[in-house]
Design brief:
Strand content: 5-15%
Largest sheet: 2 strands, antiparallel
Distance between the termini: 44 Å
Radius of gyration: 12 Å
Shape: globular
Helix content: 40-55%
Low-confidence stretches: none
Mean pLDDT: 89
Order of helices and strands: HEEH
């Protein structure tokens, strides 16, 4: 099954993660990030939060 790239990109920017839903939280495994914007677990909001956390840590 092929991924609908237009939908994937749309969801990446449009979806706001539900902080009460564990499935929509950032999760890293031994091979890196395991999220998808189609499942709400890898969105622009996640990237912004990760970037901010790195900046705060490096201060």
């Amino acid at each position: 099954m092929l991924v609908d790239l237009s939908r994937l990109e749309r969801e990446y920017y449009a979806h706001t993660p539900d902080l009460d839903n564990a499935a929509e939280r950032v999760s890293f495994g031994t091979s890196g990030h395991r999220g998808s914007s189609l499942r709400g677990s890898f969105t622009e909001a996640h990237i912004l939060a990760i970037t901010q956390a790195i900046c705060d840590y490096r201060r």
